[in-house]
């Protein structure tokens, strides 16, 4: 049963956390860009409530070139990314500041139209060469993903969107953690084991 559930969830998981793992800096210039306050409100929905007000938020100013810019500078521990205008799904994420080198480099490489495999290869080579590093302690990432139009600005809700909680534990494996490599909703499992960006995942229920 767990294997069946995992296969059904895999497309969502790959979309929401493929590093975030997630996350593109593609052009939004030709799209209708929501007001910055709306982008901020939607972006922080991915974070635990207690961490939302102080989070830094990156989004898409209407008068910019369609790439991510800082919409709000916060003193908190999280950086949140707004939903990309014109995307075919709603997707926001928040992650610990210590993960910014990893996330930023991923955005830069994807902007060059590199494949996921090429992005991973470049990042791993750079990590191993000491050009930048992953945090050596467990660090969190939160995503919220659903159909386009999930977020209702007036109600500040993301109906039908699914949350995913991620804890990065570099080089962790199923053997070193005692976690499975697949699991049902609400249960932790490990993904990309043995890599610098190995992480524990927990998929939550859809937002009502």
Question: What secondary-structure arrangement, pairings included, does this model have?
Answer:
Blueprint: H1 2-17, H2 36-43, E1 56-59, E2 69-72, E3 78-81, E4 89-96, H3 100-110, H4 116-128, E5 139-147, E6 151-152, E7 157-158, E8 162-168, H5 174-177, E9 189-191, E10 199-203
Parallel strand pairs: 1-3
Antiparallel strand pairs: 1-2, 3-4, 4-5, 5-8, 6-7, 8-10, 9-10
3D architecture notes:
The structure is a single chain. With 208 residues, this protein is an alpha+beta fold. It has one domain (2-160). The protein is 25% helix and 23% strand. It is built from five helices and ten strands. The strands form two sheets. The protein has an eight-stranded mixed sheet, sandwiched between helices. Helix 3 packs across helix 4. It is globular and about 45 Å long. It starts with a helix and ends in a 5-residue tail after the last strand.
Keywords:
single chain, 208 residues, alpha+beta, eight-stranded mixed sheet, two-stranded antiparallel ribbon, 5 helices, globular, disordered N terminus
Secondary structure category: alpha+beta
User: What is the mean predicted local confidence, pLDDT?
Assistant: 87
Task: Pick out the low-confidence regions.
Answer: 1-30
SS strand fraction: 15-25%
The shape is globular
Q: Provide the spatial order of strands within the biggest beta sheet.
A: 2-1-3-4-5-8-10-9
Helix content: 25-40%
Q: Give the number of helices.
A: 5
In summary, what is this structure?
This protein has 208 residues and is an alpha+beta fold.
């Amino acid at each position: 049963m767990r294997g069946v559930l995992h296969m059904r969830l895999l497309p969502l998981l790959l979309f929401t956390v493929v590093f975030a793992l997630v996350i593109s800096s593609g052009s939004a210039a030709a799209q209708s860009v929501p007001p910055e306050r709306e982008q901020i409100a939607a972006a922080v929905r991915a974070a635990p409530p207690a961490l939302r007000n102080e989070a830094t938020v990156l989004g898409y100013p209407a008068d910019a070139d369609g790439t991510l810019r800082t919409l709000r500078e916060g003193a908190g521990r999280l950086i949140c990314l707004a939903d990309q205008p014109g995307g075919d799904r709603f997707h926001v994420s928040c992650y610990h500041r210590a993960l910014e080198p990893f996330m930023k480099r991923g955005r830069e490489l994807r902007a060059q139209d590199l494949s996921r495999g090429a992005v991973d290869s470049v990042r791993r080579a750079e990590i191993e060469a000491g050009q930048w590093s992953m945090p050596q302690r467990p660090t969190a990432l939160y995503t919220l993903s659903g159909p386009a139009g999930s977020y209702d600005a007036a109600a500040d809700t993301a109906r039908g969107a699914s949350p995913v909680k991620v804890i990065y534990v570099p080089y962790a494996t199923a053997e070193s953690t005692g976690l499975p490599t697949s699991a049902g909703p609400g249960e932790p499992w490990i993904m990309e084991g043995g890599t610098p960006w190995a992480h524990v995942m927990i998929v939550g229920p859809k937002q009502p």
